[in-house]
Glycine receptor subunit alpha-3 isoform X2
Amino acid sequence: MSMDETHGGSMVSAILFSIVLLLLLGRTADAQRSLEFFDLLPEDPKLYDKMRPPKKDGQATIVYFHVTVMGLDSIDENSMTYAADIFFAQTWKDNRLRLPENMTSEYRLLEVDWLKNMWRPDSFFKNAKSVTFQTMTIPNHYLWLYKDKTILYMVKLTLKLSCAMNFLIYPHDTQECKLQMESLSHTTDEMIFQWDPDVPLVVDENIELPQLQLVKNYTADCTQVYSTGNFTCLEVVFVLKRRLGYYLFHTYVPTCLIVIMSWVSFWIKPEAAPARVTLGVTSLLTLSTQHAKSQASLPPVSYLKAVDAFMSVCTVFVFMALMEYCLVNIVLGDSDTPPKPASPPQPPSSSGTDAAKLDKIFDIATKKSTTGPPPGPTPAQRARMRALNIDRVSRVFFPFLFAVLNVTYWIMFAEYI
């Protein structure tokens, strides 16, 4: 082999080695290059319209929802609102996108800011008063792209939501508070919301509320027909039952004790007017304060609530106990007029001394010869007996009637306890 041939072979080997090295470096550079948004768009970016939903075969785009409820609190009956901390997830498929090259994992994390240039569901919380997006320690949201071109967008939110409450049987009521999510601009011909078929809703089992108990939660459809068309809507329903313990010890028991306290006047003698009147008026004023206290946390509704009916009847009982003493005082006061003074005896005259003596002897003899019945009770004694009888009847009638009221009331609302 000549020197020229040896030199030529070395040159060819060097060139081949350089080409292989350049290819490896190019692949390494491609592998290390960060993913850009334009890498996801079709080869012709003009074919991608972020305002049009990614329909397939003319069918409406289906968006799957998942909600994780981490907390419920700040339930305010006066403003009819409540607060909820949730993780809100939306999943949809966009076949117009391209997958990144060399995507080996099941999903890839994308920049959340890319959503501004992509089509995304225009969902909003229909009954929300305010929405707070969590930003500590980083913005609490992320965007995933799966191998089948499915996009998952997850965000953590704190919501203040309205809840239409009915207080007709308060405090034995059960309220249904909703979390509604509706499409803003896409009708059901273009987009449909559906709950995730696997896990649509997760509610933390450790949720504790001071006066209400979360007894049930479920998902439902709230799609409505507007003048512009049908707009898809989904909702989460929280069934909240009021705990009766607080109202039992702070409203019902004190009210019953005030009514029973007003009956003490039936055992006070009728002549003690200051004691009986003071007790009745004090009981009435205390009960009025108790009634106003029970209404402090509720809106001024126009209908009668269950607690209003109970408190009103108790007020009538206290008022009737006060009126009972008015009747006793009237019966007792008819005999309070002082008796007429006896006429002074006539002075004996000198001329009729003998005749007066004879009349006196005759009267004494008549009294001794005739025995009549003993004199009866005076009018004052009879009036006092009538007053005492009214008190005796009231001691039995008032407690019996109040017991009937309580038994009837608690039987009526036994199913709500």
